[in-house]
Amino acid sequence: MNTKLLTFITIVCIAFINHSFAQKDTAETITINEGSGFFNIKGGTGHETDTITVYYYKPKNLTSKSKILMVIPGAGRNGDSYRDSWIEASEKHNVLILAPAYAEKNYSYANYHLGGLIKDLDMSKGVTFKKNSNQVIVDEDIVKFIPNSDSSQWIFHDFDRIFMIAKSAVKSKQHKYDMFGHSAGGQILHRFALIYPNSKANWILASNAGSYTLPDTRTAYPFGVKSTGINNKSLKKSFKKDLVLFLGELDNANEKGGKLLRSKTADKQGTHRLERGTYFYKQSKATAEMLETTYNWKLEIIPGVGHNQRKMAKAAAVYLYENH
């Protein structure tokens, strides 16, 4: 064999071996034992020095064909409590539960609720709390922020990564995963479906969100998708995702649980969560019809339930693993 050719092949082989070891060294490998537990992974781009704690529950009869559900907590970031709400359903339906917890000290309102699409959010002025209520009044003319166009820093990338890490740990053959998020988690998940349509997520249940980002290219984020890079082509992909607006019938004007943002633009969607979720669904459907595209999003109103993540989780388990 030609000496130069042999040298070249040797160099390529060494480079490939070194690259393979580098990939192995940087991959995040974790252990998932039967029952309740947690594992830690590093944050995504822009949060490399931060830690995401993922609380899990592995049912005793889990197999490689068992489904995987990711549960996104509300503003309390209490992944352990949200995980616990799914233990009974996990054993009954043989589903692996993953509930990532994002520490508030590392992931602000802008990073968590709004997915990282804005930065330098200044809420030191223009925000007041209405006495004897759950309402947070925001003056949009005073509160300042700037768009974050670096999509690699958006929180949505974490979810597929967490799924793949857990999938490897339990040797799952699943190619997709389901999602449930309540309150702030509901905000994150409807934005996830809207803005990140190429994810590996299957069913996405966005429960009792307080405010919404409409598929409106004329309105600025966080109430629309103007200047986010989202266009009509990507919206068509988003509308094909199996997003379910999962709303509590009693999460209405009489509900005092959880913080509710009030502002001039948010109030165009309605003045309580049930009204806003219904408005978002109808406006999104109208946009899909205008684009003459498939609309897979659904609206489910759960009777007799308000802003209660445990009761909504119980209803979600029936919806996901008994009705579908």
TrEMBL record:
Signal sequence interval, chain numbering: 1-22
GO MF entries: hydrolase activity
SUPFAM superfamilies registered for this protein in UniProt: alpha/beta-Hydrolases (SSF53474)
UniProt feature coiled coil, ranges: none
Keywords: Hydrolase, Signal
InterPro entries the record matches: AB_hydrolase_fold (IPR029058)
Signal keyword on record: yes
Protein name: Hydrolase
Organism: Algibacter mikhailovii
